[in-house]
Design brief:
The protein is α/β, with parallel strands linked by helices and 175 residues long. It has two domains: 93 residues, Rossmann fold; 60 residues, no CATH class. It is 21% helix and 22% strand. The chain is built from four helices and eight strands, in the order ββαβββαββαβα. The C terminus is likely disordered.
Length: 175
């Protein structure tokens, strides 16, 4: 059973979770698991989102396209109209390495923006170095972002077998 509603800047639709991925294929698992659930189709202009009823929670599933610019646009739109309590990012998020398959799980302890990694090095000691500072906070943007320690503790407390905890990606360093 489904219904349809249309949102405007003054009409919101509160959800609990938003599951986002760059590639639609990375969301197939969730779409299959949710296929028998009730959902609401939510229209925002030309865009249509499905919000599923899952265990007394409202869950939106959407893909963003590749790159932080597309992701930022989709996250902003979803946050503005749905105000989710949590975002779950599903997908490779740059965790691509030989042997990875769809539905493998990568838990990142640190992440960086692929589009930006060389910028930190290239603009250091140039007139453009000031662009590396947040325009409001006047703080340098971090080269990488740490995962939430509470979420890492929860993951590390799980008794899961066959987990490779030794993979460490290369993070760019400023000299």
């Amino acid at each position: 059973m489904s219904s349809t509603i249309t949102l405007t800047p003054t009409v919101k639709h509160k959800i609990d979770y938003a599951i986002i991925s760059a590639m639609p294929e990375e969301l197939d698992f969730f779409k299959t698991k949710f296929s028998n659930l009730n959902f609401t189709e939510v229209n925002i202009g030309e865009l249509t989102f499905k919000v599923y009823d899952y265990q007394n929670a409202k869950v939106l599933i959407a893909h963003s396209g590749i790159g932080t610019a597309f992701a930022a646009g989709v996250f902003t739109l979803i946050y503005s109209f749905f105000q989710p309590d949590y975002f779950l990012v599903s997908g490779t998020a740059g965790g691509i390495k030989e042997g990875m398959q769809l539905r493998d799980v990568v838990v990142a302890e640190k992440a960086f923006e692929a589009e930006m990694q060389d910028v930190f090095i290239q603009v250091k000691n140039t007139p453009f170095e000031s662009c590396l500072k947040h325009p409001i906070k006047n703080e340098c943007f971090p080269m990488n972002y740490a995962a939430d320690p509470e979420l890492l503790n929860i993951f590390n407390s799980l008794n899961l077998s066959n987990i490779n905890r030794n993979y460490s990606p290369h993070f760019p360093q400023l000299n």
